[in-house]
Specification:
A hairpin with a 2-residue loop joins strand 1 and strand 2. The relative contact order is 0.14. 58% of the residues lie in helices and 4% in strands. It is mainly α and 272 residues long. Among the domains are: 37 residues, no CATH class; 117 residues, Orthogonal Bundle (Cytochrome p450-Terp, domain 2). The protein is built from 12 helices and 3 strands. Strands 1-2-3 form a 3-stranded antiparallel β-sheet.
Amino acid sequence: MSDAGSDWLRTSVGHSTPDSIVVRGRNLADDLMGQMSFADVAFLLASGREPSADESGLFNAVLVSLADHGLTPTALAARLTYTGAPEALQGALAAGLLGAGTVFLGPVEDTARFLNDVLSELPSDEVVADGELADLAGEAVEAAVVAGRRIPGLGHPIHKETDPRTPRIYEIARETGLDGPHLRLLEYVAVAHRKATGKALPINGAGAAGAALADLGFPPFLTRGFALLARAAGLIGHLAEEAERPLGMRLWKEVDRRAAGASEPGPDPAGA
């Protein structure tokens, strides 16, 4: 029986033999270990090519910008899961990552997708002039405002005036000549939104990260993956601290006490 129909069962990402591991056509031990940073390997795995030095700088900066943002719900989810199951670090880490949605981390993808949809109206090989970007931004913002839709990438619950990550991402992108149409369009979107609503919402770090990743050539759905990759590092930090200086149990008891309106601590967790 012919096996021609099994040609689909293959991958170019990697494979292993008894004495070697190959990743994207490169020997893992000889060509990657000690030769490339983890972030550059992530870029290679996702795109199939090594980043240039400039691309590596911007990509690494984006990952760093998304690594941690304090005791956010994602960090709390990880810590509280660890409180209940300290033997399953993977469960605590997964719990933190599962909370990546439209409010936390998800705006990386949402912004990239919004900008990509706006730019899809233009020929892919066309160099976009600033005036055209401004017009596109105005039309997209007007449509969103009329429809009552939130524009991703704008506003932040803590950084009301300037998200400190945003100007740094733009600075690195401009220094390396990688401030492409997505990053530029996002600036015009912020301006158009301010004109349309009177609200001066800053470009948030997640939005700038999504635009930068899109300008690096990644499709919108993959940008969320990189946000998760970056935040995994931050969650590992929170879990390391939770193991050394736990707050999960005290936090649960405090919440339980307040919720019950009692003055005594909550029940002993042994039977919970």
